[in-house]
Design brief:
alpha/beta; five-stranded parallel β-sheet; 44% helix; transferase; nucleotide-binding; Cyt_trans-like; coenzyme a biosynthesis; EC 2.7.7.3
Length: 142
């Protein structure tokens, strides 16, 4: 059985994330979306709220599960779930530059965990979670 994890803060989840999850669900027997703590981000939603949003967006996918991880490294979460693959998304050259460093970090921790990159469809990759949060912030002020 091919299991993969897709870690991220998902604050909020957007159509690019969903597109990647849908693509991964076709390639892997099981995909675990991992709501992760990112110490470099200030989340607007708590982990349970983010989990509920993710669940509402992926309910049509029967082989996708959602877990919360706020206390262990991503590589440890993969081992815990017996996942051999880690899913990442790419939108731009900036993402690629970051992902090369991320890849090296993951491989330093667990050389057996394979990282698989997906590019979301063009019409779904333009808005990042950060931009969506900024839009929401200013909409609330109107």
């Amino acid at each position: 059985m091919k299991k993969a994890i897709y870690p991220g803060s998902f604050d909020p989840i957007h159509e690019g994330h969903v597109n990647i999850i849908e693509k991964a669900s076709k390639l892997f027997d099981e995909v675990h979306v991992i709501i992760s703590l990112n110490i470099n981000k200030n989340n607007t939603l708590n982990s349970n709220e983010r989990k509920e949003l993710v669940l509402s967006k992926i309910k049509h996918l029967t082989n996708v599960f959602v877990d919360i991880n706020e206390s262990i490294l991503t590589t440890e979460q993969a081992k815990k779930l017996n996942a051999k693959y880690l899913i990442r998304g790419l939108r731009s050259q900036d993402d690629f530059n970051y992902e090369v460093q991320y890849y090296d970090g993951i491989k330093a921790l667990d050389d057996n965990l394979e990282i698989v990159y997906f590019i979301s469809d063009e019409e779904k990759r333009t808005l990042s979670s950060s931009i969506l949060k900024e839009i929401e912030h200013f909409k609330k002020r109107e």
